[in-house]
Amino acid sequence: MSQLQRIAIAPSQLQQEQILLTKEQQHYLERVLRLREGDRFIAINGKGKWWLAQLEGEKAQILESLTVETELPVSITLMVALPKGNGFDDVVRCCTELGVGVIVPVVSDRTLLHPSPQKLERWLRIAQEAAEQSERSFVPTILEPVSFMTSLATGTANYSYICEARGSYPHLREAINQVSTTSDIIIATGPEGGWTDKELKHALDAGFQPVSLGRRILRAVTAPVVALSVVAAQLESLTFDSAS
Ligand code: SAM
Q1: What ligand 1 atom has the least distance to the C-alpha of 193?
Q2: 190 Cα to the center of ligand 1, angstroms
Q3: What residues make up the domain containing 113?
Q4: Are residues 145 and 28 located together in one domain of the fold?
């Protein structure tokens, strides 16, 4: 199945057993991917549904619904303080490949970037492409940028961690030993200048546990990718152990 091309569709495009293709999708399927009438491809709705579909001009016929097992067993939300320049593009791309569920772009006290409204569209596009490339069944949700204090007040999860580059904190890998596959997790990472003491205090008051990602200081772009890799490795080994 993996050699078939995938395209993302919106729920409104589904009508009974057919997909009404947009002009852009028709162009992409026929001109870019060079599919012809009768060729098959995979349609995904970004919310866990995949279908095997067959191209029929302006429409595609759904042949069957597919089962995919490429998602992490736990929902992970990353609250990422926006890094400078286009660094957040890489965060979105890499973390989508690694299985993130929700990304919250955060404006913290030391955040230097104040994103334009077009940035969100760009990140959504990057997430969609990365989800297709990594054969995920979900496209992660990317929220509008919010202040760190707002994100603390609105985010709820069974386990919440804040990554702090300095200080003597348990490693995230040890901290997530308590997590089971029925939990959900929030992980917050700071900007180039780090969290302020006030932000750290507010996070702890909100129930976040401070954690380390090792002895080296990681860039603001690297930290969320490392945090997610650590958690994904731990959680997937839990699932594989219980399956064997
Ligand atoms: N300027 C800060 C300092 O000197 O302490 C470093 C900030 S670091 C470039 C950006 C963010 O990545 C930090 O706020 C933290 O969330 C995360 N981070 C980087 N290295 C880390 C580490 N070794 N352990 C935990 N978090 C880390």
Answers
A1: 1
A2: 6
A3: 75-243
A4: no
Q: Same domain for 53 and 98?
A: no
Distance (Å, whole) CA 139 – CA 169:
33
Q: Which of the listed residues 25, 42, 66 is the one where a domain comes to its end?
A: 66
Count CB-CB contacts under 10 A for residue 126: 18
d(CA 111, CA 60): 45
Q: pLDDT by residue for the chain (244 residues), tens digit each?
A: 446 777 878 888 999 899 999 998 898 888 878 899 999 998 887 666 789 999 999 999 999 998 877 888 788 999 999 998 899 999 999 999 999 988 999 999 998 777 887 899 999 999 999 998 998 877 888 989 999 999 998 777 789 999 999 999 999 999 998 877 667 899 999 999 999 999 999 999 999 999 999 999 999 999 999 999 999 998 887 655 554 4
CA distances to 147, 155, 189 from 7, in Å? 34, 31, 32
Taking phi first (over 0 means left), then psi (-120 to 50 degrees means alpha), and beta for anything else, what does residue 21 get? beta
Ligand 1: which residue has its CA nearest to atom 27?
A: 165
Same domain, 56 and 89: no
Question: Total structural domains in the chain?
Answer: 2
Q: Quick one: DSSP state of residue 47?
A: B
Same structural domain for residues 231 and 140? yes
> Which run of H or E residues covers position 240?
helix 222-243
Task: Indicate which atom in ligand 1 lies nearest the CA of residue 216.
Answer: 23
Ligand 1 probe mutation, 107, 189, 195, 208, most atoms within 8 A of CB: 189
My answer on whether 43 and 82 are in the same domain is: no
